[in-house]
Amino acid sequence: MRLFLSLLGLLYFIHIPNVDSQQLNQTIRGQIVDQISKSPLIGASVSVLGFEPAKGAVTDLDGYFTISEVPLGTYALRVSYIGYSDRLLPEIQVNSGKETVLQVALEESISEIQEFVVTASEKDRTINEMIGVSGRTFSVEETRKYAAAINDPARMASSFSGVVSTDDGNNNISIRGNSPNGLLWRMEGIDIPNPNHFAFPGSAGGGISILSSQLLDNSDFITGAFPAEYGNALGGVFDLNLRKGNNQKREYTIQAGFLGTDVALEGPFSKNYRGSYLVNYRYSTLSLLGKIGVPLGDYVTNFQDLSFNFYLPTGKKSSVSVFGFGGKSDQNKDAELDASEWEFEEDRYNTNFFSNTGAVGVKYNLSVNSKHFLQATVLASGTELGDAYDFVDDEYIPEERFYQRLSNSKITWNMVLNSKLSSRASLRSGFYFNQLSYNQYNRAYDQDLGQIVKHVDSKGNSQSVQAFSQLNYKASERLSLNMGLHYLQFMLNNSNSLEPRFSANYQLDEKQRLSFGYGLHSQVQTLGTYFAEEEVDRDITLPNKDLGLSKSHHLVLGYDRSLNPYLRFKVETYYQHLYQIPIKEGETETYSILNQQWTLMTDPLVNKGFGKNYGLEVTLEQFTNKGMYFLFTGSIYNSLYKTEQNVWRDTRYNGNYNFTFTGGKEFQWKNNRVFGVNVRMNYGGGQRITPIDLEASIEKGETIYQENHAYEVQNPAYFRTDLRVSLKKNKPKSTRTWSLDLQNATNRKNVYGTYFEPMSNEIETVYLTPLIPVLNYRIEF
């Protein structure tokens, strides 16, 4: 480790001759393919806009192009091919440290003579052409430059319409009022486990993303009415794509910051082979500081992760990719062994938490012919989580209060076939088979019984099956239709769902578009919930084993307008009807799994709950033009649920409104320097909490909620400002970037919730994170 730190220091102090005044250039290259069959397009034209005379290239027999000696900066590229719609790619960043390598797919036109031409921009369309509503693409640059995004897709997405961060301390997000646990993560076309450090059981988020921005390519984010290929999710979808490594030259990235120290390596396997590798390793900076003796306070936080993508062509029409990620994280705290220092009850607890996650996949791609493209993938993944709390009594002897250890593993097989039926129609069909294994153990202290009670002690396996088929049909130059079916079956209890999906887009003219979408969606519960145990007359039963799938109808209506080539206005309204939601049985019960966020639910549940989410979302976005961009989003919404009490209540996530402004400007300085300022301001309604029964809490010595008033109290309005400044310096063969993120720059005390403090017999308020500076340095060469 000392050698590694020494190497970092050496790289920083390496002297590069001062040649700042010279004009620096870089290469843009890549491949142009058909959107459906992935076959290369020979003779496609690629031009960099803004040059006179024109600067561009034409693709070769394999669809590859190279544009040399492009001055550093941010450009828009136009890609054209006879019989295909033009594609406009804005915000293409050209730096000296790395070549810019692109993979671009073009959509075939339905007629050679068009009624009018709609130029598709990379930013106002999704990568997946089957997404008709509530979707947008996001780029790696956005995860880097958005204030407080810190290279994390989930934190970046909180700038988008309908998305609200549920806790500053992690990247959990609520989409259109849904629980964060309704989010689906997908990578390279196959479902993956929650890719975050410090993840809790059943959650879809965590403290820090495992995924490195060094590996991510442009990807899709969907907030409702998903196409038929996505299943087992109620809230939203992250559909992530991985970047291939540079297959012509070796390149490096080293990044050191408050959160972690990264080293990335990419390059070709050999000179005459188009294959490439891309690997990134990261180690917690706080762990490094702790190892050299820097005091880090009460909580000791450690993490490390590895992510990779190996691209291996096996012929002109086929390739194999080996990809994956793995992350280890833990957080520990020792109790204060001096009674005079006990101010809060948490001072008397030893805590230990760990969260490990990993996935490895092998994908085979085959361009069967000019009409068909086949993709087959197998992915093995697993998670292991553990949590323990010990209470130190007056004699400083630890007494167990809670322990759980949960491990899940999954092997997924999938096959997807893309078929171009004609210039008007394409069909995508596929299936998924999941082999699920689990080992769950959970016990906790029961205050009434005065002893530890076991809730779950089970291991075994089960399976789930998914299948889909969806058709994209261009009825005319103006009207595009997507229709399909998704089937999901959980083999443990044979619960199943056949789900129709539909969307339509109608182009009013070259600047305006109407859209409509509908989908029925379902989701399997967290495995540990099914195997919760209950003892009845000394017999152990599994009351939740027969829980059915949670289901939701999504309806979306939208309007898009391009105000100019760089400015877009969008409005969407939606309604979601949720049913078969697990709740506690009884007319006095107010619990619904729709409000679940952190822990594993082990109480007996029934599928008799309901929910509804509806709202209006507005987006005004300027794509980067002359170094400036901005994104304004506003949401007015309602999120409600109902139990057998037959009363509609606010969900935990019903803030009612949320407004976000994200923007930035880059200033070109002399000597190849670029100074950037980015800001994000968020104002929204506070989350809902259940009031505490103070008298009952004092009597029992722990927090007792007034469950008959569930989520009737709303926290004060949430307001937060994040600021990011950066300085990028291009050298002849390297790019260096310093950045400083000020999270919660105004140090506002936003309320998270309340709890009962036994040491003082008072209700205490918990606040979200204060001002946090995050300094980062990155060098690419």
From TrEMBL:
InterPro entries: Beta-barrel_TonB_sf (IPR036942), CarboxyPept-like_regulatory (IPR008969), Plug_dom (IPR012910), Plug_dom_sf (IPR037066). It is found in: Cell outer membrane. Coiled coil: none annotated. Residues 151-237 form the TonB-dependent receptor plug domain. It holds the Pfam family CarbopepD_reg_2. It comes from the Bacteria. Keywords: Cell outer membrane, Membrane, Receptor. One of its GO terms (cellular component) is cell outer membrane. SUPFAM superfamilies: Carboxypeptidase regulatory domain-like, Porins. Its main location: membrane. This is Outer membrane receptor proteins, mostly Fe transport. It comes from Algoriphagus zhangzhouensis. The lineage of its organism: Bacteria, Pseudomonadati, Bacteroidota, Cytophagia, Cytophagales.
